[in-house]
């Protein structure tokens, strides 16, 4: 019986006739002998690792990847439409939970986790069979990434998971911005409709006074006709305010993915003192750590920097260990062990390495640009908020305080015959106009407050 030792293995395998038979039954898929053949093949491969690449593998500990698969979006039941008026926090919670677009964005985390599972997978072995006159050969070949490629792939995939989560937070932040704007529009259109309805009620009250004066003979029918015309114009304004309110209702319901819902908003319209605003430098230090855009840019930068090291490690060749069972008519049955490795003579992965370096430089520049934009936006938002709050407080102090006395004086003057119908209508219109101007200032203040929250990363904690 002839003995053939591979010059690359450094170890000799003693031939046995039943090994060839077991290997053949394994390759042919016989179930009762497949496990025996597989165990013997594994023993031979283990002997090769101990003789050749065992010391290299001993230096590399394969990390364990623990993946958490998120629940499918279809398993999360949408929140029911509330019947009572909702505040901004509750409305934003509905939007985050119900909106399908955000559910689709969250699935990017599952895709990144799937990439982590792919990176953690060990290379598959290759089984071969060949036959020629007088000889048959069964073999198995296993690539061995002994230079840490698999570990770096897994680390890069985990950084991809971090980047995916950060990008989801960016999407949530953008959606919250749209939802907050929709909520503010809903709240303001409600208030404007209320102002117009109260102005209509005031005009009806004035109409009773005018009709009483006409019946008493103190006023002409011109006053009644002029008042009727003003009431028709007022009804048109109320109808327009109702249309704007219904449009805001539909938009807010659509963002919450509850098209049949008619939301009603509630919230404070009072301006807090300007002195209570936090300092810009304090907000910036907090914003650098929690602003979604900056967190996502930093996560992308970390992943691309790690990718450079991964590409350099991928340039190292991966050896493959092979074990073969040969059945020869003249020489008998014997084992053959070998090692093969790629020679990086022409392709040293210089292109992928250079590409990864350029991508990392681009990511660094994008992160620097994001820092500048974030700092500038925070400064702008704080300045706008200070101005808006000062304007609201000044208008409330100087303008709104005179509305009630002005209305009473206009009605008293008309009753006493000291004012005309035009002066009465003008006073009522002036009061309504001032209240609407106050709502415009409040809306700008609320928008400025939300912009400060967005610019500082002070977003509501929503599930």
Write a structural description.
With 463 residues, this protein is an alpha+beta fold. The protein has one domain (17-456): Up-down Bundle (Outer membrane efflux proteins (OEP)), CATH 1.20.1600. It has helices at residues 17-27, 31-51, 54-58, 88-98, 100-120, 149-215, 221-255, 280-290, 292-314, 350-398, 403-415, 421-456; strands at residues 126-132, 135-143, 320-328, 332-340. It has a four-stranded antiparallel beta sheet with strand order 1-2-3-4, with helices on one face. A hairpin with a 2-residue loop joins strand 1 (126-132) and strand 2. The radius of gyration is 39 Å and the shape is elongated. The protein starts with 16 loop residues before the first helix and ends in a 7-residue tail after the last helix.
Topology record:
Layout lengths: L16 H11 L3 H21 L2 H5 L29 H11 L1 H21 L5 E7 L2 E9 L5 H67 L5 H35 L24 H11 L1 H23 L5 E9 L3 E9 L9 H49 L4 H13 L5 H36 L7
Helix pairs in contact: 1-2, 4-6, 5-6, 6-7, 6-9, 6-12, 8-10, 9-10, 10-12, 11-12
Strand elements, count: 4
Radius of gyration: 39 Å
Distance between the termini: 73 Å
Mean pLDDT, to the nearest integer, reads 80
Strand content: 5-15%
Give the CATH superfamily.
Outer membrane efflux proteins (OEP)
Widest β-sheet, arrangement of strands: 1-2-3-4
- According to CATH, what is the topology? Outer membrane efflux proteins (OEP)
| CATH class designation | Mainly Alpha
Order of helices and strands: HHHHHEEHHHHEEHHH
Number of domains: 1
Share of helix among residues? 55-70%
Main sheet specs: 4 strands, antiparallel
Q: Any guess at the CATH architecture?
A: Up-down Bundle
Shape: elongated
Category by helix and strand content: alpha+beta
**Tally of individual helices:** 12
């Amino acid at each position: 019986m002839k003995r053939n030792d591979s010059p690359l293995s450094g170890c000799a395998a003693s031939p046995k006739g039943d090994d060839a038979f077991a290997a053949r039954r394994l390759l042919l898929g016989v179930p009762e002998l497949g496990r025996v053949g597989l165990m013997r093949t594994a023993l031979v491969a283990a002997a090769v690792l101990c003789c050749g690449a065992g010391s290299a593998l001993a230096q590399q500990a394969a990390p364990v990847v623990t993946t958490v698969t998120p629940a499918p979006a279809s398993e999360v039941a949408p929140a029911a439409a509330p019947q009572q008026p909702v505040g901004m926090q509750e409305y934003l919670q509905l939007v985050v939970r119900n909106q399908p677009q955000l559910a689709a964005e969250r699935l990017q985390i599952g895709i990144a986790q799937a990439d982590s599972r792919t990176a953690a997978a060990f290379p598959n072995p290759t089984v071969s069979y060949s036959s020629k006159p007088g000889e048959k050969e069964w073999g198995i070949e296993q690539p061995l990434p002994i230079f840490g490629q698999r570990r770096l792939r897994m680390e890069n995939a985990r950084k991809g998971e971090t980047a995916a989560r950060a990008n989801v937070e960016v999407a949530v932040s953008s959606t919250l911005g749209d939802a907050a704007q929709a909520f503010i529009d809903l709240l303001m259109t409600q208030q404007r409709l209320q102002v117009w309805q109260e102005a209509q009620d005031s005009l009806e009250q004035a109409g009773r006074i005018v009709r009483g004066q006409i019946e008493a003979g103190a006023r002409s029918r011109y006053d009644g006709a002029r008042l009727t015309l003003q009431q028709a114009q007022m009804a048109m304004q109320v109808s327009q305010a109702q249309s704007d309110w219904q449009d805001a209702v539909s938009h807010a319901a659509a963002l919450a993915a509850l098209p049949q819902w008619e939301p009603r908003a509630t919230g404070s319209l009072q301006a807090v003192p300007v002195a209570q605003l936090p300092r810009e430098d304090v907000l910036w230090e907090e914003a650098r750590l929690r602003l979604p855009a900056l967190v996502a840019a930093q996560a992308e930068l970390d992943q691309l920097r790690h990718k450079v090291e991964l590409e350099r490690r991928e340039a190292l060749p991966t050896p493959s260990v092979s074990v073969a069972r040969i059945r020869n008519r003249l020489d008998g049955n014997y084992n053959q062990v070998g090692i093969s490795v790629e020679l990086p003579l022409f392709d040293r992965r210089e292109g992928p390495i250079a590409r990864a370096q350029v991508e990392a430089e681009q990511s660094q520049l994008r992160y620097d640009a994001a820092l500048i934009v974030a700092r500038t936006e925070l400064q702008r938002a704080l300045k706008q908020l200070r101005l808006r709050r000062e304007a609201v407080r000044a208008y409330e102090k100087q303008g709104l305080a005179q509305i009630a006395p002005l209305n009473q004086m206009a009605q008293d003057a008309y009753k006493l015959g000291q004012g005309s119908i035009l002066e009465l209508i003008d006073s009522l219109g002036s009061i309504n106009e001032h209240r609407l101007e106050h709502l415009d200032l409040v809306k700008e203040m609320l928008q400025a407050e939300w912009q400060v929250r967005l610019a500082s990363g002070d977003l509501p904690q929503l599930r």
